[in-house]
Structure formats: C-alpha cells, structure tokens
C-alpha cells in the first residue's frame, strides 16, 4: 500500500527487482551501441521506454542467475525464469547476453531500424524473432508473440497458420449490431469457441484483441495517432498495459465468460467502497501477460459479492457503465473498448501529445510507481431512439436528453500510464474520481468540465 491509497496489498512495488533489471538492461545497451540508439529513438518517436517493451533478457552470467532467484524470479519452463509478483521481463539462459523486445510485427521493427536480420518463424505464426543488432558482447532481438508462451520456436503446420488467419478475419469482420444483446454475445461466443477449438485459448486471444484494438482505433483519433507513431517506431501495440470493457449488469457474466474462454483468469475485484456506483473485475491472461479492466454498475449493498459470476438484475437507475452501454452498446459489441492503456514515459507522452493537439484530462493516479491519465475522449453520435427510451424510463431529464440527441456523447479514450518498480496494482480512489467524471451526464453542455476531477491528485 502506498500512502494508504493504492489497493490490493499483495501487489507492492519491487524496487530491488527493478534496479536489477535496470542494471541488466543498461549493461546490455552499453555493449550493443545500436540498441542504445534505438532506445532513444523509440522514446522520441512514441514516448515509449524500451524498458516497457522488453519481453525477456539473457544475462549469460551464473551469478546474475542466482541473484534473480533471490529477488523473486522462479522457473517457468524451458530454461526460463519469471517474476510472478511484478511486471518484469522473463530471464532466459541463452549463453549470450541479449535484450528481446516485443513487437506486433518483426518486419516492421526491422524496417524501422534499417536491419537486414533474418527472421525465424513462419509469417502469421505464433512466435517469430530476429536478431536486430549484434553488439560487442550483447544483442538486441525482436520477438513477435501471438499467444506463444515460451522462447522455443514451435513447429506449426501451414494449415494451422491458415486457420489462424481466417479466424482473425472473422474477428475483424464479426457482426456487432443485433436486434438484441444476447444474440450478439452468443454470436461472439460461438466465434471464440471455434477459434479456441482450433488454435487454443492463447493464440485465439491474441487474434481477438488484435481485432478489438483495430475496431477501437476506428472510433478514437488519439488511438490512431499513437498507433501510427508506434508503428513508425516498429513496435505497434506492444506496449499495451490493459484493455477496458464496459458491460451492462444483465450481460456482465457472459462478457466475463467469453474472456475466460480466451484464457483470462479473474485476478481481483475492485469495489467503489463508500462512494459506491461501480465495481470492476480485473482479469489477467498469464501467457499473453495481458490485463482486462471490466466495469459494471453496482449498488452499495452489492460490494461483497462475486458480481462476475452471478446473474445481476438492472438497477432502478443507471450509473456510469450502464448509461454508457445503453447509449453506445456493450463494449463486447457495437461500442467497442472504452479505452486502452499504453505504457509510456508519462511526461514525454503528455508533452508530445500537447504538440500534436491532443488534450489530456487531469491525472487520476499520480504516484512514483503509478501514473494514469486519459485523453479528453472521442465524441460519437447516439441513436435518438436510445435517448428517447432513456427519457421515457426516467433515466434522463428532458434537457439532458435533448443535449445527448444534438451533441452525442464521449465513447472512447487513450490512457497514458506509467508503471515503475514492477507495480501491478491500480489506484481505486483515483478510479472513483475519473469514473465519476466519465459519466456521460457530466459532459452535458453547462456541466462541470471533464478536465475537473476532484481529488484526482
């Protein structure tokens, strides 16, 4: 716990482990001069720190290996060590020192660095890599993971790779608008079931979220801008920290079920406490090392239940997530992701975005180990029939309803997040504040400006 504010006591900063990683990384970059130059260029182009896209390291030193055990790294199969309690790179015993960084496309990273390295692994397969730079005692390696857990090159039949490409296209082209939500979620679940049956949950999960981010980008100018910058730098969305879903109460359990079929595991629940009004199930995909923040409306008396796995009836009055879903649709369907959080040097991204005309809301987490802020958000027209229904049901007053009919409502954001010392947790009071401000009713003409988050700092 930090200053009595950061929640989930089991997630704590790990400064000694972070210093250990920093030393390994600095030593490798010193012995591979082109890699150090790329690290600086990556920060200048996209405000992404090389540290945030390091997939694994090879120290090539027995003493270092022993020290890693002392700091919490444990065997994870095939000569690999993993730190379970913090966000740290895996360690691999390869016999030669190198830094392996993640990318969405090895070809793009090679193009961005001007490298002519040979790529190992079939195109569109589950794991690919290339030794981008060879230095005097250490190398920079690019790895493209598509749901593959280890650092060993798998043998995958061409027919399976073709199936993966077909499932990706099905996810990209999947129907999202239906006459009723259950039909849409059932359709989505069937597509997921088919992909998991052929490819397993991890590869299917990687393909599903590649399509989810593409759909979200289409509705978020800040996302398109940042992805273009990170594509130019060669990493794509390799720096994603978490994805955020909104779901209405009666469809929350099925949303969670679909995510669990994709290999996500429920990690912890966040509750609104005395402020009430919301809850969130945090899920983690251990192979992809991907996190989901799934939000739902809650009443004060529901703070001690497992709301992710039990039927939830509608509340008399919608809170933020419920109103957002009625206006835009479920995140799993036509609305898409509420936002995606990318790991950054938070000051660098804020300065670069300011120069590009992208405005940020006030930060809702501002700690040495955790910084979070959202872009002001993307507006989207709302179907007037949906507003009419909300007004008839007494969820909106006449003036509120007219404002939403004429101006629409904010639907999507990009999140600037910086994590240090391997901290995996979240800041519940800060989330309380930002979710209050993100309630569509707070963005009506004449309402409190969305940049004002009481107590956000």
CATH-defined superfamily of the largest domain: 2,3-Dihydroxybiphenyl 1,2-Dioxygenase, domain 1
- Roughly what percent helix? 25-40%
Main pleated sheet = 9 strands, mixed
Predict the CATH topology of the largest domain.
2,3-Dihydroxybiphenyl 1,2-Dioxygenase, domain 1
| Domain unit count | 2
The CATH top-level class label of the largest domain: Alpha Beta
Beta-strand segment tally = 17
Please give the oligomerization state of what you see. single chain
Poorly predicted sequence stretches spanning 5 or more consecutive residues: 1-9, 448-457
Provide the β-strand percentage band. 15-25%
**SS-derived structural category:** alpha+beta
What is the average of the pLDDT values?
A: 90
Question: What is the count of DSSP helices, taking H or I runs of 4+ residues?
Answer: 14
Alpha carbon gap, first and last residue = 16 Å
CATH architecture of the largest domain: Roll
Radius of gyration: 22 Å
Shape: globular
